[in-house]
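Loading example: each entry is read as two labelled lines plus one structure line.
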Amino acid sequence: MLHPRSMSTPLVTNNTELTVSELSAALKRTLEDRFGTVRLRGEISNYRGPHSSGHAYFCLKDQTARIDAVIWKTTFMRLKVKPEEGLEVIATGKITTFAGKSSYQIVIEAIEPAGLGALMALFEARRRQLASEGLFDEDRKRPLPFLPRTIGVITSPTGAVIRDILHRISERFPRPVLLWPVRVQGETAAAEVTAAITGFNALPVSAPLRGPLSSETSLLRPDLLIVARGGGSLEDLWAFNEENVVRAAAASEIPLIAAIGHETDWTLIDYAADLRAPTPTGAAEKAVPVRADLLTSVNDLQRRNAGAIFRVLDRRRSDLRALVRGLPQADALFAAPRQRLDRASARLTTTCLRMLDQRSLTLGRLAHRLSRQAPHASLARMAQRLDARGRDLRRASALLQERRRQKLDHLGGRLTQGLTLGLRLERDRIQNRRQQLGTLEIRLQSAISRRLEQRHTRLAALDQLIRSLGYKSVLARGFALVRDERGIPLRRATDVTDGAILTLEFADGNRQAIANAVSSSTIPPTEIAAGQPKPRKPTRTAKKPKQEELF
Amino acid sequence: MSEANADIAALPFERAMAELEKIVDELERGAVPLEESIRIYERGEALKKHCEALLKSAEQRIEKITFGADGRPSGTEPLDVE
């Protein structure tokens, strides 16, 4: 406070009256002009982490003085080394005043630990802190998989580190490697490494291994992680001392090998890892066994396995042979019982046979007695009697039959004789009748033909007569017959009406004429016409009685 | 491989190898009953085959994780290191 005041002394001498605001503004200008950017060494004090706004407020102090300090949010996020209570730092920033309180402060833009000692002190303090939380405990450390299926590597995708790791892995036992590329240095390194460790842990656990390694999808959780970085200064490696990185490594479910820097470089992630490798190459060596060695030992085991089973079988076989030799002979064991058995069986046979003989004798006797009583025998006797009767019966019936046949023959003969006689008589009678019929037929014929002849002769005579008496013969002599239109013959002139149509029949044909009254008065044609028919009428009437007579 | 040894296919190399060693030790000590010794011998053969298969399947596929727009891992791509 004294120092800036002395700088403004010349202004006071003017004795001009100033407002507080004017003074504050003038101070601000002076301060900011005079101390634009400063590098300030001091120990961080009153640090309570970033404010909820993201800005950080604390003090920098040394043995005698202190100054307010602020780090804006955007700057804070970029910081490689975060402020920490008691950390001696060199802060780079601008001096500015806060007019409302008339106080000044430094707005820090960068912080670096003030010297190796300070950084080491910070490292040690943080190590103690995390160790007290148990993050580095031995019993937290998990064994590495003997032969990981996939190895996740967290390092820079370029440079010697990844190359060394891959080279050593392929040399020992080639395995799939999944690289999570990160920056291993700089402001964002810690955050990236943290994200990579948690990201690997968040990947899905791979399916249980089925036989030889297959082409599983790559984005499965590796079963071993290597976090690696090449050598560098303490500041270069500082990201691996950050609390979030260390906590992520400690929390990793996947066993983790840390290989940061050279063998002499220790970072806090080395303490939290399940295994610390001195170098990236060393990490690869810890990660996979040597394939050739394994092949050798597997083959060796197989040889021993085969040899052992061979020896086991061999020993058992010889044991068995020895035991077999030790067994007493089967014959000797069985001789005495067998003899007893033989004797017994011999006795058994004879006894049995004797018993059988007795029984069969008794049976024979009984059978004989029985056979006499047997229904067979009486049946046979009855059958014999029945046969005799049967024979008698057959004889008798044959005799009877013979007699009947003779009688039948006799009757048959008489019947035939009778029939023959009857037939002859009948035939004679038929002959007589036939002769009588012939005579009658002749008489009938002659009678009929005589009668017919008489009739013919009479018919011819009548025909002759009828011909001579017919009107046609009159016509032939030059007369005509008059008929009216209905064909009825007209006998009188009064029968003819005037204008009637008349038919005149001549011998050689018919003609038609019309009756005329006038001409009939002057000339009497009827005399000519009807003169001749008139005499015909009697002929006609004369004919009729003749015809009647005929019938 | 008989059914009794079907579990071997799922054994990690280390355990298969350890079991094989145990079997060989037991057989060499000769304290196993005969049937048992034949059974474990066959298992030993199966274990050896499995180990050998695992050892032969050595392949080195090297891939790099790629990230989606949200910064989360989205896939992989082959990593080419010189």
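The helical segments of chain B are 13-29, 34-56.
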